[in-house]
């Protein structure tokens, strides 16, 4: 298949995997992507035309640059010693000791290939590490240690990997030369990233001062940065492009606050574009992993040296070796910390050490590195045991994901599924904030609420503000806004309220709607009896009421999706208007009758509801207040819309009222977020996320205003 069609298929599979993940939340999306790739490869004999020389550039450069951009500060800076020790010394220990043990396990695999395999398996997925560590409730010091290490161990692992691959390709290895080359490529790579990133930032500043501050242009320039830095460093200086892009990312992060102050729109757009890129690249890598598995398996078996069970055993034992090395290292770190702080050293945290070892889920960097292994060596012969290396690496990735998925429910009471880089959406990106320095209020003194509850709370405050500002001349705009808020609140309540509570609300609303529909039917009969409407209008209105009554008999909670409901109403109105136009000699009269019906039946419904709740044999307190209010707002909204149909055209005034009320409502939402934060009901992270949601809403409002003015 040509590369263009292959890329389109890979992206479609990534999107499809996330749809499946929405329903199978207990399975990491990375495993779903691997499974989809495997199915496509087996059923349709699909293969991806891989060019190994561009794999590091296409995948590694942006992934590591993005890690550098998210490099944490404050607490992690205070732990820089242990973090860098883990990121460097643990990687090299894993490479040397792990490579030796893998070589002993698989003698037919050359020692340098075993070293390369161990090196590329040493980097961990930072999102998965963070997800497991938080839910396992590791101590803060250990949490920051494993999280910080996972963000920067990619570079050291890839350097060791490239050395081992080079030794295999050339067939020559000198320790002295390797040490000298290591210092050269590391130092020059660091300087290259520093110089080129400084030059790019200086160029951006100059262009801004010259008036070239277009957001799209600057966003594309920033997206191109890691690819340019990597290529120039590798091709011209022959140093480490990996270190260069990490350095460039960290330097970008260091000037991040200044960028936010100068151009918040650029910051917003850039972050979202990067989220899209990382989301796509990670997903594509795991889909390719699934596609390549049958190829690697068949080549391993056809080679005649190993059978399927032996290959699976090698993959499992390699995972065990990596986990044991990581666990032992963490155990030694915890023991050293306790001895250093003169604490009891008889129980140095074996459970925490094992959890730290299991948290080392392998991800996209490992897979991209393995796929970059050349097909041949310098002599022209095939790269030794390349297929087995690919199979074992893929197996370790899958086993680490499965082990974490199985282990997580046993060590945490949280319902949150395992997150990986491939599932790092907006929410997970915001949660990986390791440098928050706010003082959290203990959860045992104040009830922590979910984000859906918090959003519903601030939206109710917005409704209260709109009610406060509602006047006779802006009621249509006010009720339109309130109704929109009510529908969003109801959807949020479906997420966080217990099923029994929501069932009670729905039952209350069904009972109250039956009362209001009876009032509407009685009002219609009075209008027809008084000959205020024709038989045609009467029949159409009666059918609408009958349709609503039939919907009430359906199972509560199983309503038609909003999109389908929208098109159903759209076509219904279209056919009704067409019937008026084709069969009626007085279309204006029928429209006027319809507006009269809308007003009078809505008034009758409100009156009927009030009389029902006020009757002596009905306990008004048994009904949910939100259900009553939601129903009243809907009918008042109908009255105001019917009035607007008969009034002179004041659409510009209506839009002005909507915008004015919306701005005040957003202000009320911001106040609500601050009050929740000060009361300790939400964390700093959640407050930031909620404020971001309000900011987005405000941006959408501004965009609509600009489009209206244009």
TrEMBL record:
<keyword id="KW-1003">Cell membrane</keyword>
<keyword id="KW-0915">Sodium</keyword>
<feature type="transmembrane region" description="Helical">
    <location>
        <begin position="389"/>
        <end position="411"/>
    </location>
</feature>
<feature type="transmembrane region" description="Helical">
    <location>
        <begin position="354"/>
        <end position="377"/>
    </location>
</feature>
<feature type="transmembrane region" description="Helical">
    <location>
        <begin position="6"/>
        <end position="24"/>
    </location>
</feature>
<keyword id="KW-0472">Membrane</keyword>
<feature type="transmembrane region" description="Helical">
    <location>
        <begin position="276"/>
        <end position="297"/>
    </location>
</feature>
<dbReference type="InterPro" id="IPR006153">
    <property type="entry name" value="Cation/H_exchanger_TM"/>
</dbReference>
<dbReference type="Pfam" id="PF00999">
    <property type="entry name" value="Na_H_Exchanger"/>
</dbReference>
<feature type="transmembrane region" description="Helical">
    <location>
        <begin position="182"/>
        <end position="203"/>
    </location>
</feature>
<keyword id="KW-1133">Transmembrane helix</keyword>
<dbReference type="InterPro" id="IPR018422">
    <property type="entry name" value="Cation/H_exchanger_CPA1"/>
</dbReference>
<feature type="transmembrane region" description="Helical">
    <location>
        <begin position="83"/>
        <end position="103"/>
    </location>
</feature>
<keyword id="KW-0406">Ion transport</keyword>
<keyword id="KW-0812">Transmembrane</keyword>
<keyword id="KW-0739">Sodium transport</keyword>
<keyword id="KW-0813">Transport</keyword>
<feature type="transmembrane region" description="Helical">
    <location>
        <begin position="150"/>
        <end position="176"/>
    </location>
</feature>
<protein>
    <submittedName>
        <fullName>Cation:proton antiporter</fullName>
    </submittedName>
</protein>
<feature type="domain" description="Cation/H+ exchanger transmembrane">
    <location>
        <begin position="12"/>
        <end position="410"/>
    </location>
</feature>
<feature type="transmembrane region" description="Helical">
    <location>
        <begin position="309"/>
        <end position="334"/>
    </location>
</feature>
């Amino acid at each position: 298949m040509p590369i263009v069609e292959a890329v389109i298929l890979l992206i479609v599979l990534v999107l499809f995997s996330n749809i499946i993940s929405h329903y199978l939340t207990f399975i990491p999306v990375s495993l779903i992507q691997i499974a989809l790739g495997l199915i496509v490869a087996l059923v349709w004999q699909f293969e991806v035309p891989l060019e190994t020389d561009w794999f590091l550039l296409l995948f590694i450069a942006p992934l590591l640059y993005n890690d550098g951009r998210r490099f944490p500060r404050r607490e992690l800076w205070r732990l820089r010693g242990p973090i860098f020790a883990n990121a460097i010394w643990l990687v090299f220990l894993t490479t040397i000791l792990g490579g030796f043990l893998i070589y002993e396990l698989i003698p037919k695999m050359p020692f340098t290939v075993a070293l390369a395999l161990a090196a590329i398996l040493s980097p961990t997925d930072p999102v998965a590490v963070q997800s497991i560590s938080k839910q396992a409730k590791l101590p803060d010091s250990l949490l920051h240690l494993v999280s910080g290490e996972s963000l920067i161990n990619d570079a050291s692992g890839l350097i060791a990997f490239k050395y081992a691959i080079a030794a295999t390709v050339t067939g020559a290895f000198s320790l002295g030369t390797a040490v000298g080359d290591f210092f050269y490529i590391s130092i020059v790579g660091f300087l290259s990233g520093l110089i080129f990133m400084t030059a790019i930032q200086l160029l951006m500043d100059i262009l801004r001062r010259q008036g070239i501050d277009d957001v799209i242009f600057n966003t594309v320039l920033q997206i191109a940065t890691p690819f340019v830095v990597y290529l120039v460093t590798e091709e011209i200086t022959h140093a480490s492009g990996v270190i260069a892009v990490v350095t460039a990312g960290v330097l970008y992060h260091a000037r991040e606050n200044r960028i936010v102050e100068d151009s918040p729109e650029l910051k917003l757009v850039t972050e979202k574009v990067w989220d899209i890129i990382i989301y796509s690249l990670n997903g594509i890598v795991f889909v390719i992993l699934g596609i390549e598995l049958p190829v690697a398996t068949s080549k391993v078996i056809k080679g005649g040296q190993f059978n399927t069970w032996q290959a699976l055993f090698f993959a499992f034992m390699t995972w065990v070796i990596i986990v044991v090395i990581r666990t032992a290292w963490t155990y030694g770190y915890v023991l050293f910390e306790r001895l250093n702080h003169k604490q009891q050293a008889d129980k140095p945290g074996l459970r925490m050490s094992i959890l730290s070892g299991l948290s080392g889920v392998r991800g996209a960097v490992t897979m991209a590195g393995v796929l970059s292994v050349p097909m041949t060596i310098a002599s022209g012969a095939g790269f030794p045991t390349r297929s087995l290396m690919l199979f074992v690496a893929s197996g370790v990735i899958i086993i680490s994901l499965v082990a974490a998925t199985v282990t997580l429910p046993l060590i945490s009471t949280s319902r949150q599924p395992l997150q990986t880089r491939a599932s790092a959406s907006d929410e997970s990106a915001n949660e990986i904030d390791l440098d928050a320095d706010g003082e959290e209020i203990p959860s045992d003194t104040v009830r922590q609420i979910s984000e859906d509850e918090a959003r519903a709370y601030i939206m109710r405050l917005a409704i209260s503000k709109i009610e406060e500002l509602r006047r006779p001349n802006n009621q249509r705009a006010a009720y339109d806004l309130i109704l929109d808020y009510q529908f969003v609140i109801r959807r949020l309540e479906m997420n966080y309220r217990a099923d029994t509570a929501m069932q009670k609300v729905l039952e209350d609303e069904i009972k109250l709607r039956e009362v209001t529909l009876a009032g509407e039917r009685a009002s219609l009969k009075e209008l027809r009896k008084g000959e205020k409407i024709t038989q045609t209008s009467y029949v159409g209105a009666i059918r609408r009421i009958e349709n609503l009554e039939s919907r009430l008999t359906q199972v509560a909670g199983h309503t038609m999706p909003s999109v389908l409901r929208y098109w159903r109403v759209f076509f219904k109105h279209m056919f009704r208007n067409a019937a008026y136009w084709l069969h009626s000699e007085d279309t204006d009269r029928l429209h006027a009758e319809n507006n009269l019906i809308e007003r009078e039946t809505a008034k009758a419904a409100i009156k009927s509801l009030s009389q029902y709740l006020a009757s002596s044999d009905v306990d008004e307190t048994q009904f949910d207040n939100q259900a009553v209010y939601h129903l009243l707002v809907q009918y008042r909204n109908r009255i105001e819309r019917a009035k607007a149909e008969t009034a002179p055209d004041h659409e510009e005034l209506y839009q002005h009222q909507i915008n004015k009320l919306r701005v005040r409502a957003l202000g009320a939402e911001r106040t609500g977020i601050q009050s929740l934060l000060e009361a300790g009901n939400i964390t700093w992270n959640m407050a930031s996320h909620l404020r971001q949601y309000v900011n987005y809403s405000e941006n959408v409002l501004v965009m609509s205003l600009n489009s209206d003015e244009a």
